[in-house]
Design a protein that fits this description.
By secondary structure, the chain is of the alpha+beta class. It is built from five helices and five strands.
Length: 161
């Protein structure tokens, strides 16, 4: 079946099988490999993307549900081509050592950005609660929590990106 949606700000039309998952569409058909699949059971959060502004786990979402929607992936956070501009949350993760191997990072970032959209002054407890659906096997989460709080403040200082 053919679906049309907005992907990272660009109109996109693709053919998909009715049973295709969004994660598979992104990685295998659209070559957007920043969205990771860590568990296939929606437990780890490595596959989080934004569907119509809401963070969702793409490993359990059927591709036909994208028809008419707006999808933002980790690749959509980059600035203008050639600018090397990072999203304020990406910059905060870099600055505060909020990543290690990087496998969970795309999902963490997408979840963190949604968490911070309306709240520049997140508390540690709010961040820890908000990230409960994202698993990192490398860290103790402390640097991630600090990075999310700094990223939220930076997002709002930059105009709420």
């Amino acid at each position: 079946m053919q679906i049309s949606f907005t992907l990272n700000g660009q109109p996109t039309t693709v053919e998909v099988e009715p049973s295709m998952l969004v994660a598979d569409l992104l990685r295998e058909q659209l070559d957007l490999t920043g969205t990771h699949v860590g568990c296939d059971t929606s437990q780890c959060g490595a596959c989080v993307v934004h569907l119509d502004g809401v963070p969702v786990k793409s490993c359990t979402l059927l591709a036909p549900s994208l028809d008419g929607a707006t999808l933002l992936t980790i690749e959509g956070l980059q600035g203008e081509p050639g600018s090397n501009r990072l999203h304020p949350m990406q910059e905060a993760f870099r600055e505060h050592h909020g990543l290690q191997c990087g496998f969970c990072t795309p999902g963490m970032l997408m979840t963190a950005i949604a968490l911070a959209q309306d709240k520049p002054n997140l508390t540690e407890a709010e961040v820890r609660h908000g990230l409960e659906g994202n698993i990192c096997r490398c860290t103790g989460y402390q640097n991630i929590v600090v990075a999310v709080m700094a990223g939220a403040a930076a997002m709002h200082a930059a105009g709420g990106e």
